[in-house]
Amino acid sequence: PEMQEAFGTGRIIPVGPEGDRAVATVLAPVRDSLGEVVAVIELTAPLEGQAPAWS
């Protein structure tokens, strides 16, 4: 449903974490040179960062 909303409205849609997955997800429309939505990308990042490698 969120992906359809991003396609239909052309807006960026935040998606909350589900279950035990501690990640933030955003669906963003991709537009062509005419301004029409032709794809949707999904960007995901962990909500809790890992310690730096040098620590």
Describe, in plain words, how this protein is organized in 3D:
The protein is mainly beta. It has one domain. Helix content is 15%, strand content 40%. The chain has one helix spanning 2-9, and strands at 13-15, 23-31, 37-46. The radius of gyration is 15 Å and the shape is elongated. The mean pLDDT is 88.
Briefly summarize what is shown:
This protein has 1 helix and 3 strands. By secondary structure, the protein is mainly beta.
List keywords for this structure.
mainly beta; 55 residues; 40% strand
Produce the secondary structure layout.
Blueprint: H1 2-9, E1 13-15, E2 23-31, E3 37-46
Antiparallel strand pairs: 1-2, 2-3
